């Protein structure tokens, strides 16, 4: 089973009807063809060395194996979590993955762990009944993944306790964290390095949780230049 490929990106197709893209990456003098969500494909650059974490899907009855590529281990795990939804195949899971990336992966996982059916409805347009089914399928599996995201992200389950009066640390806006990270990635920085820099900036100081996006990006750039 493949864990990841590292090498130059040789081809990125336009999104197909389902919104996914075909990506070719060369690794060890071998070219591999992967399927990527459009939110992943938009961050890839031709001939630029990239590491793509791989999820595999073997077709039934002897069909070929399809490889799916993601920029982080956490994103791969999120995709595999979505594939555990009853009746959801890989293409639908990629569609859900893109919708989550447009809003907030952290907010989505928080909603699963809290059992917030209304929040899931806002992500996908689900009816309350459908959202409840998703919660029943994924709630327990989402908690370990939320902890993985929390390693590089500022959003955690203790937020609710602090909102109730506990002064255990700053409450950080997950949307600011994600937008700052995306801004750094757009400037050409590695996504994982960008996440660490933004997290470091937002976790420091008394007013860290209420800083503007521009200020966060500037300070994160300083961290990346060290």
Can you walk through the features of this model?
The chain has 226 residues and is of the alpha+beta class. It folds into three domains: 4-73, Nucleic acid-binding proteins (OB fold (Dihydrolipoamide Acetyltransferase, E2P)); 75-152, DNA polymerase, domain 1, CATH 1.10.150; 159-221, no CATH class. 51% of the residues lie in helices and 18% in strands. The chain has helices spanning 38-41, 73-83, 90-102, 105-114, 117-124, 128-152, 159-163, 174-186, 191-203, 213-225; strands spanning 4-12, 20-27, 30-37, 49-58, 65-70. It has a five-stranded antiparallel β-sheet. A hairpin with a 2-residue loop joins strand 2 (20-27) and strand 3. Helix 2 (73-83) runs antiparallel to helix 6 and helix 8 crosses helix 10. The protein starts with a strand and ends with a helix.
Domains (count)? 3
- Number of E-type strands: 5
Strand content: 15-25%
The separation of the N and C termini measures 37 Å
Q: What percent of residues adopt helix (DSSP H or I)?
A: 40-55%
Average pLDDT, to the nearest integer? 80
Query: How would a crystallographer describe the biggest sheet?
Result: 5 strands, antiparallel
CATH uppermost class of the largest domain: Mainly Alpha
Give the structural class: alpha+beta
Which fold name is given in CATH as the topology of the largest domain?
DNA polymerase, domain 1
């Amino acid at each position: 089973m493949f864990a990841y490929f590292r090498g130059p990106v040789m081809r990125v197709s336009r999104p197909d009807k389902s919104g996914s893209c075909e990506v070719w990456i060369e690794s060890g003098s071998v070219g591999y063809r992967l399927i990527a969500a459009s939110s992943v494909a938009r961050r890839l650059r031709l001939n630029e060395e990239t590491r793509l974490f791989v999820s595999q899907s073997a077709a039934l009855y002897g069909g070929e194996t399809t490889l799916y590529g993601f920029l982080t281990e956490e994103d791969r795990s999120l995709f595999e979590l979505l594939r555990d939804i009853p009746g959801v195949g890989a293409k639908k899971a990629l569609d859900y993955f893109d919708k989550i990336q447009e809003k907030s992966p952290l907010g989505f996982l928080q909603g699963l762990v809290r059992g917030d059916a209304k929040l899931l409805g806002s992500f996908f347009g689900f009816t309350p009944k459908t959202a409840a089914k998703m919660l029943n399928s994924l709630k327990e599996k989402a908690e370990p993944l939320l902890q993985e995201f929390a390693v590089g992200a500022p959003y955690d389950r203790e937020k609710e306790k602090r909102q109730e009066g506990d002064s255990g640390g700053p409450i950080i806006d997950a949307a600011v964290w994600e937008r700052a990270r995306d801004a750094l990635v757009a400037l050409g920085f590695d996504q994982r390095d960008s996440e660490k820099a933004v997290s470091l900036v937002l976790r420091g100081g008394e007013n860290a949780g209420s800083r503007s996006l521009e200020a966060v990006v500037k300070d994160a750039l300083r961290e990346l230049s060290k």
